[in-house]
Amino acid sequence: MKKTLWICLLFALAGCTNTGKKEKLLTPAKHKIEKLNFFMEVSGSMAGYLNGSTDFVKTIPNLLVAIEQKMDSGTLKIHNYYIADTALLFKGTTEDFIYSIATKHPAREKSSEMHKIFQMIADRTDSDDISMFVSDCILSYNDEDIRANREINREKAEGGLKPFITSTFSKLRKKNDMCASVYGFNSSFDGTYYTYQNGKLPIKKGSVIRPYYLWVIGNKELLKKFNAQLQKLEPFKHNKVAMDFGIFDKPVTDYTIFFRYKKSGEWQPEHNKLTDAKASKSHPAIIAIGADLSALPLYAQDTGYLKKNLKLDKSNLDFNVVSILVPENINKADLKKNELDALAKSSHIFIVEVSDLYKSNTEIKISLPLQYDTSYHNISIMDDRDIKDISGKTFAFEHLVDGVRAAYQNPNQDFITIAIPIKK
Amino acid sequence: MFKTLYELLAGTNADPIYGTDVYPAVGLFTLLFALIFALVFYLALGRWKPVWDKLIHWVITLIVLVAVAFYFALSQSKGATGEDADAFMYKFALVNALFASIYFIIFSILMKRASIFARRTPF
Amino acid sequence: MTRNIYVFGIGGTGARVIRSLTMLLASGVMLPETNKIIPVIIDVDAKNADTTRSLKALEAYKLIRDRGYGSREEIKDGFFHANLSTLSSVKPLNDTTEKVDDSFQLQFENLETSFIKYIDPKEELAGDINMDFLEALYDNTPSGHSNFGHTELNLRLDLGFKGNPNIGCVVFNNLASTKEFKFVLKSIGENDRIFIISSIFGGTGSSGFPQLIRLLQEDERIRANFFGAVTVMPYFNVTDDKKSAINSDRFNSKTEAALTYYSKYLKGKINCFYQLWDTPLKQYENKEGGAEQQNNAHLIEMIGATAIIDFANKPDGAFKPKEKTEYFDFGIQHEDQVIDTRHFFDDTRKNIMVPLTLFTYAMKIYLEKIPAFKGEAFYKELNLGDKILSDPFYQSLTAFFNKHYKPWLAEMTDNERKFQPFNINSDLNSLVREKQIEVKKVLGVVTNGGITDSLLKEKLGKIEDELKKKIPDNEKEKRFLKLLNEISLECFKKLEDLPSKKDW
To answer: So where are chain B's domains?
Structure first.
């Protein structure tokens, strides 16, 4: 009897142990890209990009090949579509597709309605797909509506087309938390440009720079990963525009403290707080703090931008962000094994130097105010009838972007609000 | 609470994993091992047959427990930090061995009255 | 437990049977309905070594019992449970202030003299007609003759009657005047039983027995109580020694004379008359008495003690009236030179041999094993380390085993006919003669080693642990006695049963 009692006791105790006081970060279920789709707009206005050896012709095929080779270790095949009035799946490999673009002159469809194209793309993008879309992104009503009212594009772009865009992207967001990124490239153009009134403007090769855009749409987490890999590909690197929609939705508040890397002075890390801290001008406390800023727009991830725009709350203590490092620049041999785990979770490492604590129990507060990149307004134009005006600009682009942005309702928050408790 | 005890004698270590993982696990399991050893010695063996109940047996049991406690602390530290054994880990292991022997002595005093053959061990 | 039993042991035989009785009671033989057993040794031979030995055994028993159980509660079973008491412990019916000595012996007065001087201390009878009468009755070889010291009138009385019952009768009569005897008469209660042990061939016994009956039954009150007696007929010879007044050739003739006397004068006076004899096989050294008359214990004496047990346990309804005296003999299954447990019938086996076996196990364990277990927890819990060598209880117990029980067993083994139920000097598995506890092995590994040291240690530990719950620490001696009892029972379990034989 006594023997069974203590055996039960043993098991009970064994079961209770290590209930895990600290919560392990839940790694999301291994989320993988299911399928890659590529939609190329083939309305008449796109023909000019395909003539001759434009940047478009050089970039897009190489990009497709690079994606197939390198994205997710080359495991993904792209499903290619021509899209204008309808979406047409191209039967064949990506290599065949590229050959077809080069030789077959596919772009001869009627003018396409951008908002409807986005809808078609959205319909063909499954929950774990990434869809890419290349287009000149000129918002327009259809030919008939323009014939009926020549000014309709100018008048109704903001009020009529933009809400449509918003609605399409709202549905995408609801589908599986799907977001969008857009990257803009400049290319030479040899062909006909259609104005907002559907007038034709012939453009001779080399005379005008025409922007084209690559949209990437997909689930937020997959999109982040995709973008991270995309930005490393050679054919991609010369983009002029880069914007995210929906990827950033709440400020970065999480951080990890590196318990030994670059440590100086006296302090102890305890459950993401700093305790037993002593700081003075002669003996400051130096702490390496890691944070994951990958959700931020690219410009906000730039260390130069960060250094310039980070706000430090010095009301209760005196501190400075001495430098900001990225994982690629860190010598892994300097880190202990547990710190390597912290490094894997961080996209940036802030080296913070505390030189005085006014209160014995306070916080190191670092914040980055939300600033929209509004430069896209500069490449938007509402009257494209004169050839002199249109170089490097896209008609009604600001409304298109605003339309997408409205679907993601970025609240007026900071990009980063990190508060690290510190006490003496 | 184990953290305070260990840090009192072994000192602090920069890696916070000690405080979050190592000290609680090692502390609890060491206490548990000491309890089990005492239970087996006094209640299981000590009430069954007088084969392992004298002072010498108790001392051997204590030595085994101490060895287990030392090795356990060391291996847990190595596992949690991913590092090789360093001076701090050895110090921690020794401290843990000390605690194990203290637990065992206390449990011995508490349990011996419930034993038949080991009732007068160690005194 | 309503009645007491007074056991009078007359002479050397009486003392020796009482010695055996003491051993039986020490081993825990049951007397369920008896409250106290009051042994009274009556012997004029004050220095008789047998008597001295028996008295010492009784005293040791008493001390052990008092210290072990205290005198408060009724103890129903276990070693030393029977209440062997002295006369002084009995409260007489009409409470007189006169106290008696706390002794098991009844002393005569004025015996340090010769017979003639006893009768006529002031030598007033010289020349008197009564003197002539005396000289006619008794041998009166005058002083100066080489036989002087042995003539009857000139016998020294304090050395016993040397086989002369004719002298004994006279002296015994004066017993009635002793303070102790008066006390006895007053103490005997309505339900109390009386038992008398004597030998038929000796001097003291054969004369004292009928005298005692007569003296006791002079009191009307006592006459109605149940009376039992055992008379032991010749079972040994003495060597020829012309210098001694004792002559075993004359034993038989004396037996005849005594039996004739009894048949006449004891008619209707006794309820149960037990009779014992055995073919004399052994010759003892011819010692006339005194400190040198120490005979080895004999089986017959033990059987005599079982008569007392039988008498004490008889239910009231089983007695016949004294007019129809019942006579009892004792038989064994088979005649042998060496008697052991197998020779007895079932009642004796169950009531006598089982307790003796348990007691013998206890003795071996106490004397040989327990001292070797001084590292064990139970030893320390009972504080034996300090006490075994210094505490009177343990000392008495050791003395009882070493100086009384063991020699008693050894003497009976040495005697003729031999009684050897135990192999005292063997190991515990071989202790009971003709029943060896086998050591069982399976493929060379011992599965059941019988009574091994490790079994003993284990059982002693567990028993002490159990007993500790019921018997508190201030009664450690009681716990120890119970421990001995329990451990001997464990040994008996290994033995399974007493040895027996069906086909003799």
So the answer is: 2-114
